[in-house]
Amino acid sequence: MAGPLQGMTIIELAGLGPTPFCGMMLADAGARIITIARPSDRQGTSLRAKDRDALSRGRENIALDLRKPEAVELALRLISGADALIEGLRPGAMEKLGLGPDVCLRRNPRLVYGRMTGWGQTGPLAKSAGHDLNYIAVTGALHAIGPAEEPTPPLNLIGDYGGGGMLLAFGICAALVETQRSGKGQVIDAAMCDGAALLMAPFYGLMAAGAWRDERRSNFVDGAAPYYGVYRCSDGKYISLAPIEPQFYALLLQLLELDDEIFTQRDDRTKWPQLRERIAERFAQRTQAHWCEQLEGTDVCFAPVLRIAEASGHPHLRERGTLVEVNGGTQPAPAPRFSRTVSEMAHGAASGDAVSRRILLGAGLADSEIDALIRLGVVAG
């Protein structure tokens, strides 16, 4: 492993969405991630399918039946030698397993214990089920996205990944830095609703300043402004346009040969629908490829709207290696990029008898002890 977190060991309780995303980021940064999976995953398709799953890369998987006290003790043994733990179960679930923060921190006082939930560890909804869409709904984020008629689910980027997994990864790294100074561990309460609210900080600021309307398609970056949005081309494909600054907008008008007086009234919101219609007419006259040739690389703040399958072929992403081929599929490369402790693409999800045995031998168990645990069904063999 390479990267700034090289030498760190993190235990991950297998989960969905934001927790494995957090684990992927930490693995990409060089940490050793040991994932405790369910026995049902051991022989099923779940672990095998993870060879092409970006969220699962860089893992060593061991399947433990945590319903058995021997498995809980084994998990605590792994945790006692780790720098951090990440889990995404409902509040109280880890405590019921016997792996709550108090127990783990008694075994390992330096442990950073990261908890990922939707609603957080406290509050009236803490133990309620939910998903990304619900968490971003209560923060105002969902209401602000989409056409004027109704909000549009923006994939599960805001709650699960940006406001969830990435928030927890930041929390883990920050706490690990503090532990180096204090010698003490701590618990991180990372809630997707908190993270989604944090991502909305600029818009709460604009609201407070009276510069943001609390209605969809009525602001400068929500699709209302003619200089910030997407436009359909003659071939049915789309381009994105964002010349917010006046000088970039002026260059756009020049390159599109739009010199009518109305285009000088871009700050008049009552003119926005008319301006958008006129610009849309111009883009609809040519193909996406034509507009790429005409505008890409200029200061008009332009890019084609590409399908997922097309993105890796874009010259900029291709030259930077932003997207890479792994086991026949495309994955994003590790980010951000470090000048000295360079991150490298880790291996895919590693599982199987040899991996489990290596993990347990590293925890100080003898081969005979491992064989006995497999016979008892504590470790999936």
Task: Describe this structure as you would to a colleague.
By secondary structure, this protein is of the alpha/beta class. It folds into 2 domains: 9-199 and 326-375, Crotonobetainyl-coa:carnitine coa-transferase, domain 1 (Rossmann fold); 229-305, formyl-coa transferase, domain 3 (2-Layer Sandwich), CATH 3.30.1540. Helices cover 40% and strands 14% of the residues. The protein has helices at 18-28, 39-43, 45-49, 69-80, 93-97, 101-107, 132-137, 157-182, 192-199, 201-208, 246-256, 272-283, 288-295, 308-311, 315-320, 353-362, 367-375, and strands at 9-13, 32-37, 59-63, 84-87, 112-117, 186-191, 229-232, 238-241, 302-305, 323-326, 329-332. A 6-stranded parallel β-sheet has the order 3-2-1-4-5-6, with helices on both faces. The chain has a 3-stranded antiparallel β-sheet with strand order 7-8-9, with helices on one face. A two-stranded antiparallel ribbon has the order 10-11. The longest helix is centred in the middle third of the chain and has 26 residues, at 157-182. The protein is elongated and about 85 Å long. The relative contact order is 0.14. The mean pLDDT is 94.
